[in-house]
Amino acid sequence: MATGRYAVALLILTLVSKSISRPIFIQTTPEKLLKSARPDPISDGARVRSVTGDDSWCDSWRYSVETNDAGEWSLVPARCEEYVEEYITGGRYGSDSEMVAVDASAFAETVNVSGDGMDAWVFDIDETLLCNVPYYAAHGFGSEKYNETSWDEWVDLAEAPALPASLKLYKEVQQLGFTIFLLTGRDESQRNITVKNLEYAGYSNWKRLILRQESDLGKLAILYKSERRKALEDEGYTIQGSSGDQWSDLSGFAIAARSFKLPNPMYYIA
């Protein structure tokens, strides 16, 4: 039974507790985004020599990927699998996520929400609102190649729990009067199961759930999400805040007034 496959991994979430400085985002254009793909420069740990052992090297590697200095990468280096597991399950992941949420909440409170429903906050879903640690715990914490079949099986369970810090932030910005949009890379075919999982995790009353349509297949995430944000702006919305675990959730064009990057050393999406 698929649920049993992840039963032990779900225990990891009890170790995840309930930062990132203010980044500067460079606006770009759709034309530039179409040319942005490039070869993977870091995937196996061969590019940088060890300085004082694996923990120090992996800490530096994580810094490189979280700041996007590494650019595109495909796998957690084999030498860092245990490091990433400890980061995710040992409390640091929860703490870093909480710091991001605190910063986002502090900003949200400074916004003069108009009250007309046109001040928007955009949330990504996976590793932002929902936590897929049970899946990645069963698949090497990002050290295994992406498998669409096993991922879709996990999604179909609709059992991903909320990331506690993000659920708290979600409710706070909702109470402040922001209109919430959910912008995900999941396909339209996964709409019903995604709604089921979100509700199971405690989320409700979003304005719109935006998923990839057939015309979006093959697009880089940064282009797809930029286009969807631009469509919201064209409807008259002002995107005050945006939360996501990937730089492609936050960068590109039609970006938010403030964007907040959650930690994710397990995978990269261009």
Protein architecture, described:
With 270 residues, this protein is α/β, with parallel strands linked by helices. The protein has a single domain (29-36, 50-261), classed as HAD superfamily/HAD-like (Rossmann fold, 3-Layer(aba) Sandwich). The protein has twelve helices and five strands. The chain has helices at residues 2-5, 7-10, 30-34, 54-66, 81-89, 92-110, 133-137, 148-157, 164-175, 191-201, 221-234, 247-250, and strands at 119-123, 179-187, 208-212, 238-244, 258-261. The protein has a five-stranded parallel β-sheet, with helices on both faces. The longest helix is centred in the middle third of the chain and has 19 residues, at 92-110. Residues 14-26 and 30-51 have low confidence and may be disordered.
